[in-house]
Amino acid sequence: MDIQTIISLDRTKCAVQCNSKKRILEIISRTAAEQNSSIEEDEVLNSLLSREKMGSTGIGNGIALPHGRLPGLEKVIAIVVTSEPPIDFDAIDNKPVDIFFALLVPEEQTDGHLQTLAMVASKLNDKETVKAIRNATSSDDILTALA
Q: Average pLDDT for residues 26-30, to the nearest whole number?
């Protein structure tokens, strides 16, 4: 799977003002619901919060990969948000997070979910990509960095 198939400009937000883990997950959930009529904002938020209760999806280096499964979703979608300032997200390195790459996957898709997470983590492991995302001043810049 190519990362370009799961990201889009209308599900990308740059330099969002935010100050808490719950608030950033609410922003992600609202963005997903606004761009897909088959998705309910509360359902997305509950899925993301349930996953966070099992352990933070903050993978370190200021990056988090919140993710959840949704019934009725037909394909994997991503919501990419950067925050200003970085927020406490209980990341594994205890550093604040400013890059959030959220994945929503069809409920029945288990193997595909793990492969997609691995692909995104690999992309975000590239220092130049991360630097470009952090230097982004628009959603277009974020998409260009991920291309």
A: 96
- Say what the pTM is: 0.93
Residue (of 59, 109, 62, 99) closest to 79 by Cα position? 99
CA–CA gap between residue 92 and residue 47 (Å, rounded):
21
Q: What letter represents residue 77's amino acid?
A: I
41-53 vs 21-34: helix crossing angle, rounded to 10? 140
Catalytic center residues: 67
User: What are the tens digits of pLDDT across the range 96-108?
Assistant: 999 999 999 888 7
Long-range pairs for 119-122: beta carbons < 8 A, 24 or more residues apart: 119/1, 119/3, 120/3, 120/65, 120/78, 121/59, 121/65
Q: How many residues does the chain have?
A: 147
Ordered by where they begin, the domains of the chain are: 3-146 (3.40.930.10)
Helix (H), strand (E) counts: the chain: 5, 6
3-state secondary structure 26-90: HHHHHHHHHCCCCCCHHHHHHHHHHHHHCCCCEEECCEECCEEEECCCCCCEEEEEEEEEEECCC
